[in-house]
Each structure stands twice: as structure tokens, then as C-alpha cells.
């Protein structure tokens, strides 16, 4: 289920108002929470959750340091931004306070299916990388390559994944972001004006001739960028377009990989 346009605009306007109240590129999330008198507790919660917002005569955010959610880590910052989303989005906060919904313990990379979690993720992206500021920085680069994502992720102190998704949404060049585990596509995200939607080997399987596919199938892969034939990634390329080329940057890690594809 996707966020409807009216709700997306409400969330975007709210998150960016909070972010742009401060001059720093790295949004001061802890200060924003402090101004709301919203306590944040960093502790060891084993494998229970990344973060959660709870109500008990007041609101509290709990972040799990065991899973890497420290205040000086990009994972911790995104989790905190996500939980701030649950607090600042009126429908989430009111429902939680009234007991209409239970606290939603978030899990990094696993919370993309419930609409309430999608809304909190979108809030996190908007408060960490507000469109007005982020787009202006994107416009400094005339030609896209993977290094732009690296530069921007460092500038805004966010993960490569979060930065790439945000660039796909509001950046200056169409890209596709694909997250994979065990040779299966867990999710993909692409710019609205990205030219292709149908993948070469179906919507769930990693295309075997992509860099990610070679990593999963043959164990041959390191973090790198390479130019490929369009048909290595996409179905429906034929006739005069057979010579169409794309670029893929793959970041493999154990049984996982993230690929960014552009042309």
C-alpha cells in the first residue's frame, strides 16, 4: 500500500519544516526531540527491535544499541528519525496515546510493508534530507555517477541506501535502487521517470547477468561500477534498442547486495 498524495504532502511539509528550522545539513534530531521534551533512551534490547515509540503518561523513544542504533551512527539516526515520525505524525501519535494501536517496534530494512511504517520511513527521509536543501545540492552535479550518492550520504550523514532512495525520488537523474538477499529481490525503488520497470528474470529473481547476479551465482563480486548491456538488467529491450547500455554499482555483503542502476 502506497502513501496517498495528500498524506505524503502533509508528512513532507511537516518534516521539512522541522529540519529547515536548523541551518545544519546534518539535521539535529536529538535537539528536535529535546525541544519537544521527548526523552530518548539508548540501551541494549538484544534482538527485539531497532527502535520504538511508547506512551506511558508521556512519550518515550527507545533505541537499541545492540543492533547498531547509536547516536553517532547512520543507522541510529535513521531509526531515531523514523520514531520521530511516529511522534510528529498526528494520526500515529493520537492513536498510540489512545491505545488504538500498539507501539510499532521498527526493524531496519524490514518495515516497508505496513502503511504506518512507510509513513514513518518517508518522514525520516524528509527530515534527514529535506527536499529544498537536498535538491539544491543534487543540482551541483551535471552528470550522475555513484560517487554523487557517496558524497551526499556523507554530507547528510545518512546511509547509502537512504540517500539513493531519496535521490531516486527528488534527484536530478533517474536511477533504480535494488536491495537483494540470497539471490532474491527484497525490494526495488526507482525514479518516476526511470525508463524501465520490467526486470530481465522476473520481479523477484536477481538478473543473472547483472553484477549482483554474478555475485550471488558465482561468488565473484566486490564493490564496483561497471557498464552493462541494458538486457542484462531489463526485459523488453529489443530491435533498435539492443545496444542500449546501463551502469550498475553493486555493494555486496555476505548474502546481501545493494545495486544502483542508471543510464
Global geometry: globular
- Number of extended strands: 8
Count helical runs.
9
Helix/strand order: HHEEEHHHHHHEEHEEE
Q: DSSP strand (E) fraction?
A: 15-25%
Strand numbers in spatial order across the main sheet: 5-4-8-7-6
Averaged pLDDT, please?
93
**N- and C-termini, Cα separation:** 29 Å
Largest sheet: 5 strands, antiparallel
What brief labels describe this structure?
alpha+beta; 263 residues
Question: In brief, what are we looking at here?
Answer:
The chain is α+β, with helices and mostly antiparallel strands and 263 residues long. It has helices spanning 5-20, 29-35, 74-88, 90-97, 115-128, 131-138, 146-156, 160-170, 211-218; strands at residues 40-43, 51-55, 59-64, 175-181, 184-190, 224-229, 245-253, 256-262.
